[in-house]
Design a protein that fits this description.
Number of helices: 12
Strand content: 15-25%
Largest sheet: 8 strands, mixed
Helix content: 25-40%
Strand order of the largest sheet: 1-10-12-11-13-16-14-15
Shape: elongated
Structural class: alpha/beta
Bound molecules: zinc ion
CATH architecture of the largest domain: 3-Layer(aba) Sandwich
Number of domains: 3
CATH superfamily of the largest domain: Zn peptidases
Length: 425
């Protein structure tokens, strides 16, 4: 199996950038994505109210390091973006080891890994380091310098918008706010870019597609706040993240469950023979939390390998480009392609989705000469088709539920289409 592909190359290129919920790392990431596929940017000023949140001040970081009492630089942000707590405020001073300790973060149980820490909404500063290094620190005065700035600026998110035959949308979303972490954020970004390029080449898109690259939580909230008119058009979506590791796949259902994206994703996984599990919605994880908040309740599920926080490398320096493989990214991208193809397919093929033109009460078949012996319509099949054709059940699913042969339902659907009692979504 090829151990390299465009997704892994992009991931390696983006890996060193220090992303956060605002700032140059996010903009540089969006610029690089824009070299692959056109991205529309939206920038919101600090202080802007978005739903119940406020866009924070922007964090700008130039350098950050700690020097030991002997003058040796022992922690340097230039060497690894995880060394610095994201949103650290500026510091320039001398500290005793005792004073420094509360600002240090390490993992005693994983002594060679650097943890990932943030302090977005509370002013603080800190450094993350391997526990093994921390244990070597002796008494004395340490020089600490963080050349950062937290001041009014912008929050930035990007969208790839691909119009289709209808204005109904499929939303794909990847968060872009983590610094040097490969599976968590970069795998989703790399796959979303790959899928954007693949979708852009398809000329027969029934759906319009929107691929959102936004900082986690606040970015998704900002997008939701800015796109109220788009939301009723969203027919399905997937939050893509953690898709490049070695684990089995997890599909997490939308909050409402049973949406087309849920049924299709579950079936594609089942038929793929790949090792996977299906999980009900829960209000923790990634941006499905925002898309599926009760006021929106969008039909958006989430696909990952391993799931949020479920592997030891999560939020540490061990989540690096070696942990994520090209093969794993390729398999995940293929899986999402199959899901999207199936979402498209069921709007085209005869065993797919229909919508009745009379949904409130049954249509009066007798008046149209369609009822009972008088008509040439298979009444029982027609009643099943009419009742379940709400754009949420395919003929194949209606066949399973009714126990009637699919061919009878297809026949009835043809007759109902001719009499304008049924349309395609
Ligand atoms: Zn994360």
């Amino acid at each position: 199996m090829d151990d390299d592909n465009s997704m892994h190359r992009l991931l390696r290129e983006l890996y060193p950038l220090c992303r956060s919920i605002t700032g140059e790392g996010v903009r540089r990431t969006l610029k690089r994505i824009g070299e692959e596929i056109p991205v529309q940017w939206t920038e919101l000023e600090s202080g802007t109210r978005v739903l119940d949140w406020v866009i924070p001040d922007e964090w700008r970081i130039r350098e950050a390091w700690v020097e030991a009492p002997n003058g040796k630089r022992i922690i340097d942000f230039q060497e690894h973006s995880l060394h610095l707590v994201s949103y650290s405020e500026p510091v320039d001073g001398m500290f005793s080891l005792e004073e420094l300790q509360p600002h240090l973060h390490s993992l005693p149980e994983r002594p060679d890994w650097i943890p990932y820490r943030t302090s977005y909404y509370q002013r603080d500063w800190g450094f993350c380091l391997p526990h093994r290094l921390r244990e070597t620190l002796g008494a004395g005065r340490y020089r600490v310098r963080i050349d950062s700035e937290i001041s009014p600026g912008h929050l930035t998110y990007g969208e790839v918008i691909l119009p289709g035959e209808t204005t109904e949308e499929i939303l794909l979303s990847a968060h872009i706010c983590h610094p040097s972490l490969a599976n968590d954020n970069l795998s989703g970004i790399a796959i979303a870019v790959e899928l954007s390029k693949w979708l852009a080449k398809r000329k027969d898109r029934r759906f319009s597609y929107r691929i959102l690259f936004a900082p986690g939580t606040i970015g998704a909230i900002a997008w939701l706040s800015n796109n109220r008119s788009v939301l009723p058009l969203v027919r399905g979506g997937l939050v893509l993240n953690g898709l490049g590791g070695p684990h089995p796949w997890t599909y997490k259902q939308s909050r409402r469950g049973g949406a087309r994206i849920d049924k299709v994703s579950e079936r594609v996984l089942r038929e793929s023979g790949l090792s996977h599990r299906i999980e009900g919605f829960s209000p923790y994880g990634y941006d499905e939390r925002q898309f599926c908040s009760p006021g929106f309740d969008l039909p958006v599920g989430s696909l990952s390998r391993g799931g949020w926080g479920s592997y030891p490398e999560y939020h540490t320096s061990a989540d690096n480009p070696e942990f994520v493989t090209a093969k794993s990214l390729g398999e995940s991208a293929d899986l999402v392609r199959r899901i999207l193809e199936e979402m498209e397919r069921e709007r085209r093929t005869e065993d797919g989705l229909y919508v009745g033109t009379v949904l409130c009460g049954e249509p009066q078949l007798g008046r149209r000469g369609l009822y009972g012996a008088a008509g040439d319509l298979d009444t029982m099949a027609a009643l099943w088709v009419l009742n379940y054709s709400d754009g949420e059940h395919t003929l194949r699913e209606i066949a399973d539920r009714s126990g009637l042969a699919l061919s009878r339902l297809v026949q009835a659907a043809r007759r109902l289409m001719e009499r304008d009692l049924l349309t395609r979504p």
